[in-house]
User: Which sequence fits this backbone?
């Protein structure tokens, strides 16, 4: 029974040794892997910040354009009202001119 016990003990010790040696990562390996991931995260963060700046600038430009469009719309409405007033005045003057012209035609000459 001795050889079987020795054989079994050897197998158990080799298994424990293999598991113990292969299961742990070294600090160097972990640092290398983290450095690679960290570099990618930094690159993505820089791209995100650039995108945010562009988006904020575009939003600011859009707000300025909207404000200018609203101001132009208000001015257009004011101009439309002014044109309506002037149109009614022109119609009144046109009626007076027509009345004066008709009055001249109807007068008999002596």
Assistant:
């Amino acid at each position: 029974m001795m050889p079987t016990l020795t054989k079994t003990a050897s197998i158990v010790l080799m298994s424990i040794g293999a598991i113990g040696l292969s299961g742990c990562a070294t600090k160097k390996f972990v640092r290398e892997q983290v450095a690679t991931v960290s570099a990618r995260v930094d690159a993505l963060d820089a791209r995100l910040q650039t995108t945010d700046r562009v988006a904020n600038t575009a939003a600011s430009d859009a707000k300025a354009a909207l404000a200018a469009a609203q101001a132009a719309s208000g001015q257009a409405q004011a101009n439309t009202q002014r044109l309506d007033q002037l149109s009614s005045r022109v119609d009144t003057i046109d009626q007076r001119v027509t009345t004066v012209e008709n009055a001249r035609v109807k007068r008999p000459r002596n």
Remarks:
- The first helix runs from residue 2 to 22.
- The mean pLDDT is 85.
- The two ends are 161 Å apart (CA to CA).
